[in-house]
Every structure is written in C-alpha cells, then in structure tokens.
Amino acid sequence: MTDTRAELVMNAFLPMVKAGFLVSFPLAIASFICGIMIAVLVALIRISPSENIVHKILLYIAKAYVGMIRGTPLLVQISIVFYGLPALGIYIDPIPAAIIGFSLNTGAYASETIRAAILSVPKGQWEAGFSIGMTYMQTFRRIIAPQAFRVAVPPLSNDFIGLFKNTSLASVVTVTEMFRVAQQYANLSYDFLPIYIEAGVIYWCFCMILFMIQSRIEKRFNRHIVK
C-alpha cells in the first residue's frame, strides 16, 4: 500500500466508525423497533380466530403487505418512499424515509418469525388461559407471548444484524451513514478499493460485537429454560 492510500484509509477510519455509532446503529434500532411493532400486529391479525368481515379485510391486507414486501428488493422499497412519494405530493426527509423503508421491510419478514413462534406454543396453553377466564389478549400477553418470545429471539437477533448491514442502503437516499461516509472519502481520490475494503472490515467488526451479544442473550434464555 502506498503512503497516499495509507493516509486515505487512516483519515476515513474515525469518520466511518463515528457514522456507524451515531447514524447506522440508531437507524437500525429505530427501524427494528418500529418493524417489530408492525410484525406483532400483522402476526396477530394472521393467527386471530375471528372471522368477521373486518378481520377478513385486515387479513387480506396483511397477506398482501407481506407478499409485496417479501417479493420486492429493499432498495426499491426505500427508493419508492424517498423518490417516488413526492410524485403524490408526499415529501419525507432522508432519515425518516429510510426508517419507514427499513421498518416496513423488517415488519414483513419478522411477522413470519413471530407468527411461527406463536404457533409453536402448544394449543393447550391457550385453552388453559381461557379455562381460567382470561380473554384472548390476556392469554396472549400473559401466557403465549413470553413463551413465543424465547423461540423468536434467535431469528429476530439475526434479523437485527441483517438490518444493521442493510442500513448501508440508506446512502441511496442521501443519509450520511457509514457507507455514505466511505463513498465520500473514496470519491475524493477516486481510489475506491481500499476504502470499500476498510468499510467492509468495520461492518464486520460491528457485526462481531452483535454476534457476541446475541450469543449471550441466547445462553441466558437457555439457562432460564433449563431451570
């Protein structure tokens, strides 16, 4: 590596790490929280036993939403929110647009995880709640949700790690997250290879930290299950 390349890599390091902590992580966390709320709502709609007309409409909307999101690229979804909606007179700032795009995407995929986790709880648990006078939501909140949550933790943790990596797509809507900073430094010298490799290494380091956190959370849940 030449001195010029080494200096470029060193100069880009701290700004990229800073953008990772101050933009990429908060963006991933905010999107994940919103996405989980959407996912829980969609999952409950899809497993609810109600058969009235309102539920049937909501069920159709939920299935269409999941199918549409899972069948289109995340990049297209974010671009529609930021670049497409202005055609309808709806203007959204870059960070909120990115959060909306990521949240909708996370909600669709996580809803399938949560739905599967809820369905993994034996039906006898529902019947036990109903037998002591609990309503549907009370049974879900007090009996089903805690058990389903343990099942859903590993895949949802993987979803969050994937979401953190996907925040690099926010650069498309001009959010100055970690990869956007890498692009800015690479454009200064038109020497893209070392900067992009450095960005990849930094993403990997962040993800390794998340992997370790995920492992500790799973071990803690496993200890509780054994007890």
UniProtKB/TrEMBL annotation:
The keyword Cell membrane applies. One of its GO terms (biological process) is amino acid transport. Pfam families: BPD_transp_1. Keywords: Amino-acid transport, Cell membrane, Membrane, Transmembrane, Transmembrane helix, Transport. GO terms for molecular function: transmembrane transporter activity. One of its GO terms (cellular component) is ATP-binding cassette (ABC) transporter complex. Signal peptide: none annotated. The chain crosses the membrane at residues 20-45, 193-213. It is a multi-pass membrane protein. It is found in: Cell inner membrane; Cell membrane. Residues 21-214 form the ABC transmembrane type-1 domain. NCBIfam families: HEQRo_perm_3TM. Belongs to the binding-protein-dependent transport system permease family. HisMQ subfamily. This is L-cystine transport system permease protein tcyB. It comes from Alysiella crassa.
